[in-house]
Amino acid sequence: MSTFDKPKKPVKQAQSREDRLKAALKANMGRRKAQARVRADKPDNSKEE
Predict the structure, then answer these.
(1) pTM for the full predicted model
(2) How far, in Å, CA of 14 to CA of 23, rounded?
């Protein structure tokens, strides 16, 4: 019976890892989009020189 219990753990761990990666990617994309918005709104003074 213990052989049937072992496959369940890796599947659950893989799923939780996938969920963590998905959440991290979503947070990262949100930060990148926010940075892009700030950079787009900010006038670029270096071109004037």
Answers:
(1) 0.56
(2) 14
Cα–Cα distance, 25 to 27 (Å, whole number): 5
- The pLDDT tens digits of the residues spanning 6-46 come to 555 566 788 899 999 999 999 999 999 999 999 999 887 66
Measure the CA–CA gap between 31 and 26, rounded to whole angstroms: 9
The residue type found at 40 is A
3-state secondary structure (DSSP) of residue 32: helix
- d(CA 16, CA 34) in angstroms, rounded, equals 27
**pLDDT of 4 higher than 90:** no
Structure tokens at 36: 């892009």
**CA atoms of 37 and 47, how far apart (whole Å):** 19
